[in-house]
Amino acid sequence: MSKSAKDLLDGNKKWVEETNLLKPGFFNELAQNQSPEFLWIGCSDSRVPASDITNTLPGAIFVQRNIANMVVHTDANLLSVVNYAVKILKVKHIIVCGHYGCGGVAAAMSNQNFGFLDNWLMHIKDVYRLHEEELDDIENDDQRFDRYVELNIIEQVHNLSKVSFIQEEWHEGEFPYIHGWVYSLQNGKIKDLNVTVNNSHELDDIYRYKQKKK
Ligand code: CO
User: Fold this and answer.
1) Residue 88 and residue 21: Cα distance in Å, rounded?
2) What is the pTM of this model?
3) Alpha carbon 209 to chain centroid, angstroms
4) pLDDT tens across the length of the chain (214 residues)
């Protein structure tokens, strides 16, 4: 049976009641301020909600989600979120979390025309071109799809490391660490792709910005 918007409001009432019962003072405390240590860049897919799958409460994770967890350097929305997270909230970790079975990646892998969406999917297609040799060598379609999802996450980690104001933070200290994770819709588990970078990361020369002397 399809749900109405009222069902969500009713759900909210229930959640408030339960939370007040289980954690008295929770809302009062959270209302003071937020100091999340994590920024999450994930896919908009309804099946991959950051807090739920990491078993964290409101207040723990600053979140940005879009189709296929992309870091696009002309995306003012994403860059503003990252800037605020890094410069003001001083998050210690940025997590790019994609997921196997990602519809955005599947669409990018196909030759179907998706109209307006193609402009966004183009950024994902670019990742295929960068890793064409490796991906074309994988004969099994499912395996190629899975690897494409992983490579897309890894590229977004690199895209973050190219951002000038992240490099500014790295000039000051070791944080933020940028992680690449992949979530399985099949079993709910997150796998660390072990591509974490921080200020010890060797960037390609062309992406490195001059820093002010300390
Ligand atoms: Co997705």
Assistant:
1) 33
2) 0.95
3) 24
4) 789 999 999 999 999 999 999 999 999 999 999 999 999 999 999 999 999 999 999 999 999 999 999 999 999 999 999 999 999 999 999 999 999 999 999 999 999 999 999 999 999 999 999 999 999 999 999 999 999 999 999 999 999 999 999 999 999 999 999 999 999 999 999 999 999 999 988 889 999 999 988 7
pLDDT at residue 214, rounded to an integer = 73
Which of 45, 97, 146, 179 is catalytic? The answer is: 45
Q: Burial level of 48, CB count in 10 A (0-12/13-18/19+)?
A: buried
Let me know if 208 is a catalytic residue.
no
CA terminus-to-terminus distance, the chain: 61
101 CA distance to ligand 1 middle (Å)? 7
Q: Assign 189 to helix, strand or coil.
A: coil
Contact 178, 96 (CB under 8 A): yes
Report the alpha-carbon angle 140-142-143, nearest 5: 65
Q: Cα(74) to centroid of ligand 1, in Å?
A: 20
Here the tokens at position 26 are: 């929770």
Distance CA 110, CA 212 (A): 45
| Fold annotation for 34-207 | Beta-carbonic Anhydrase; Chain A (3.40.1050)
Active site residue 97: no
Please identify which of the residues 7, 47, 136, 142 carries the catalytic annotation. 47
Distance 48 CA to ligand 1 centre (A): 8
